[in-house]
UniProtKB/TrEMBL annotation:
<keyword id="KW-0560">Oxidoreductase</keyword>
<dbReference type="InterPro" id="IPR002401">
    <property type="entry name" value="Cyt_P450_E_grp-I"/>
</dbReference>
<keyword id="KW-1133">Transmembrane helix</keyword>
<dbReference type="InterPro" id="IPR050182">
    <property type="entry name" value="Cytochrome_P450_fam2"/>
</dbReference>
<dbReference type="GO" id="GO:0005506">
    <property type="term" value="F:iron ion binding"/>
</dbReference>
<dbReference type="GO" id="GO:0008395">
    <property type="term" value="F:steroid hydroxylase activity"/>
</dbReference>
<dbReference type="GO" id="GO:0006805">
    <property type="term" value="P:xenobiotic metabolic process"/>
</dbReference>
<keyword id="KW-0349">Heme</keyword>
<keyword id="KW-0479">Metal-binding</keyword>
<dbReference type="InterPro" id="IPR017972">
    <property type="entry name" value="Cyt_P450_CS"/>
</dbReference>
<keyword id="KW-0812">Transmembrane</keyword>
<feature type="transmembrane region" description="Helical">
    <location>
        <begin position="35"/>
        <end position="52"/>
    </location>
</feature>
<dbReference type="GO" id="GO:0005789">
    <property type="term" value="C:endoplasmic reticulum membrane"/>
</dbReference>
<dbReference type="GO" id="GO:0020037">
    <property type="term" value="F:heme binding"/>
</dbReference>
<keyword id="KW-0503">Monooxygenase</keyword>
<dbReference type="InterPro" id="IPR036396">
    <property type="entry name" value="Cyt_P450_sf"/>
</dbReference>
<dbReference type="Pfam" id="PF00067">
    <property type="entry name" value="p450"/>
</dbReference>
Amino acid sequence: MRQVAMWDGVLLLVVVLTVLYCLWDARKPQKFPPGPIWLPFIGSGLAVLRLVRSLKYFHLMWSALAQQYGEVVGVRFGQDRIIVVSGREAIRAMYAKEQFDGRPDGYFFRMRSFGQRLGVALTDGPSWEVQRKFAVRTMKQLGMGRNEFVWVIEREVQELIDNFRHRAAAGETFPMAGSLDVALLNVLWVLLAGQRYELDNERLGWLAETIHRTFHVIDVSGGTLNRFPWLRFVCPESSGYGPMLRLLKPLWGFLEETIESIRKNPHCPNRRDSLISAFLVEMARAERHDSFTDSQLVSLCLDLFQASIETISSVLGFAFQYMLHHPDVMRKVQRELDAVVGADRLPTANDRLQLPYTEAVILEVERIATVVPGGLVHRAMDEVELCGYRIPKDAIVLPLLYSLQMDPAYWIDPAVFRPERFLNPAGDRVLQHELFIPFGSGRRRCLGEALAKPAVFLFFTAILHRFTIECADEKLPSLSAVDGITLSPQPYSLRLTERLCR
């Protein structure tokens, strides 16, 4: 009896301690932003997942929470604190504080870089400072942001147009999920590796498709896998671990193979004609920083690949999709191109200022499509105050750019595709809008912006200048997006007809 009583006492103690822990775990910190109630262990996870299933998109879920709780919303998912910042004033205040310049840590964010914090997109701290300065300096030395790099893009555009002309004449249709990918990858590959591939190269087409798929396995905050890493042992497929690993391994292999071939080049020790060769030169220096490693180089290349190609491809995919839905807009773009460029050449970057309507169309596509609706994810590096709330150290912070670019009080009718909102009343000058920041803001502004802007302009204008586009499918493609870390267009195909008489 005494032993039974003892075990009853132990059980009672365990129950009491468990109840006390659950009560403690469900408490929100003082001055924490408002949001859904917290349950022990899982926080707001169930409420968030139910809302995502209902609204079908993560950015719509975050937006719904912002409408309910305000411009700064606090959510707990597992042990992660997630802060959703929306609206002009709150997002501006967030970008102004250097405490939010960090990037999240956790299993998912380390998984893509060999279990370490590597690369430049999802890291912070002293090594990030060194690597970002190296990447920016090297890309500028290789021509990024200058005429010589724009000429690289224009050469790829010319190759693509010639390819499209022959294929269109043969009656082929063009699935937009992959028709531009090799040309776009070539632009970046010249920068990274100093070489290009033929447009029919199957391996590079496969590489682009693999990159796209990595953006649609897990959401921008790291998904369930980041909160509960042990799920990779219990349900590797549904947690995203299995699919992501299958995508990352061949990407790592491709980049490692390329790096090794450049390393073996007899001229490699002295040349800096690509980012990879410049990195290898840094690695060989006696006084090099200890962040210059093989794993860092692979991770840096992967960051630049993913950040640049996915967004450019998605913006162009949405752009042609909206042209199918708005043929009057497409014809107006083509008339402007005909008047400024003429029939004997392709558009160049120098034509941009003389094409205000075309530029406004691109900006309106970027606004209404909002390819990166949750912005680039941040981390609070210290406890910090934001809009009267206390944000704990290491909280994941999402600037909801969707709330800016679709703000009905600012844009009046944000769901309507209307390029004129980016033009002055006379229609001859492009307007800048303070709520339009598709590449983010502050020190962590997207590194690929200098590549994305000219690439989108040149590929979009060249195709519309040379071809009339029609939908190759029975129905127009849906304008609803495929969800993920970024938004991408639903699959669709184009039929191209060369414009001979202009």
